[in-house]
Amino acid sequence: MRKVLPVVALCFFLPVAATVALSFLSEGNALTLNNYADLLLNCFIFYPMFWNSVLYAGLITLAQFLIVIPCAFGFSQSRARSKSALFAFYIILMMMPLQVTILPNYIGLRDLGMLDTRLGIILPAVFSPFGVVVMRQYMRGTDNSTIDAMRLETNSLIKVLIHVVIPPVKVCVFAVGLFVFADCWNMLEQPLLFLESDRLKTMSVFMANASSYEGGVLFPAAVLFIVPVLLLYGFFSDKLEKGLVFGDLR
Amino acid sequence: MRKFRLRWRTKTTLCLLPSLAGIVFFFVIPYFRVLYYSLIDNQFRRRFVGLDNYIDTLGNEYFQLALKNSLLLIVVAVTLLILIALLVSLALSFGIRKLRVCRAAFVLPMVIPSGSAALVWHSLFSGWDSAAPLYLLFVWKNAGICIVLMTAAFTCIDNAVFESAGIDGAGKFRLHTRITVPMIMPTLLFSVLLSIVNSFKIFRETYHYYGGTNYPPHHSYTLQYYMNNNFLKLDYQSLATAAVLTSLLVFAIVMTGLRLQRRFES
Fold first, then answer.
1. Which of A82, A131, A216, B90 has the highest CB neighbour count under 10 A?
2. ipTM of model over 0.85
3. Is residue A9 part of a domain?
């Protein structure tokens, strides 16, 4: 096992390295920067789509923090009777694939007149229950005495959240943030089905249509598509490994 | 004092509201409308037809194809994924603890966008006419989360367990099959559950792999294609029925999984 594991790890890493390597090769397998020139200088639709992805994934992640942290805290502190049934519902909803949720989302957006708008992509994703479940499981391990002590000083919920609740679960906050960002960065079905206008669409849609553009833009686009998540992963990978601990839902 | 406590409790309950409101708005209420759509004949006449739509959908050859492919994916690819993730987690947790780089390599694919991954897969596996490359892509992308969950569970095991097992003369293989793996059974079960759920997301990889067409080869036709094509046709009845059927299937799978998990109460 000692010798096999690094080999397997290398196999897992190889596709990423291959993407980068192929982006610098011309059709005659010579080293070149022409592919990048084709993409960055001749393929203007790339820019709005790239920034749309940044905008959607960034805003969804930030908005999720505002929704998820209080909600997870509410689940751990509230004494409401229906709490555990509600949490079970969140778990089940978390497990529901897009094939189930996308039509309800579509109908909700249609009724609100939000189809083909940026908000239509952002809003349903903000309320995805994944973060709530993960963070609630993580908060189970923290003790309440600090919260009680803080409450002697203040009755402000926001102060309690910022000073006492969030610091011990920081790792989980970053892990959820990275996971949500990567997931939204990868979003494909929603822009395909909720959006008509090309200027609102995302990098995923660009990649799916990339064969229709001129020159060798595919691999450089794939590399630039990886870069933002790769950077975030570089900063937060240890948190991702420690913070996503929700395997035991009993 | 009593008033103070009451207010705090109300506040903590109010924390749930924003999330809950969004979920009710975008998921729950529309879901009931979907349920209603699946029971009527069309958008305009709105006549109740009972289970006719369900009979039609279950008899539709493309729905059956999608369902068959999904089940095949679950049986073959999820099994492969869990086996690999389990072996890797065992090696990472008890073998070479210090090789953090290895661990990072397994978790990295989790954040790599499907569009980029499918592109390189296409160059690596050009000429293969089967769903096998996509199965491998699925394993590659989803092993990370399972490995994270399993290594976390393994590191929670008390070292005393190994010492006493070592004194009793248990070999390495027996130690793992009899003690360590059974001890993380709840997490293992959850990983299976999560992977089954993730297998429904294979559409993203498939769609990119076949260059954005809505008509992939039959072996890779999955439920989301069925949904997309009905979206294009604005056939809400077929869509709604497929969504309800999928939700029932997933509900059954999740409930079975969670019930099994609960049986390992320590």
1. A131
2. yes
3. no
Those of residues 124-153 in B touching chain A at CB distance below 8 A are: 124, 140, 143, 145, 148-153
Q: Which domain holds residue A204?
A: 44-243
Place of tokens 């999330």: B19
Which residues on A lie below 8 Å from B117 (Cβ)?
Answer: 15
Mind listing the pLDDT tens digit for each residue in B62-106? Answer: 999 999 998 899 999 999 999 999 998 888 887 665 567 788 888
Q: What is the pLDDT of residues B107-158, one digit of tens each?
A: 899 899 998 999 889 888 887 888 889 999 999 999 988 998 898 888 877 7
Q: Strand (E) positions, chain B?
A: none
For residue B142, what are the domain limits? 56-262
Q: Are B261 and A249 in contact (CB under 8 A)?
A: yes
Chain A residues within an 8 Å CB radius of B247: 96, 100
Same domain, B73 and B160: yes
- For chain A positions 46-65, those within 8 Å of chain B (CB to CB) are none
pTM (two decimals): 0.90
When divided into structural domains, chain B yields a total of: 2
What is the count of structural domains for chain A? 1
Q: Give the integer Cα–Cα distance in Å for B77 and B110.
A: 16
Inside any domain, residue A183: yes
CATH, residue A92: 1.10.3720.10
Can you read off the two tokens belonging to residue B95?
């073998």
User: Cα–Cα distance between A109 and A94 in angstroms, integer?
Assistant: 20
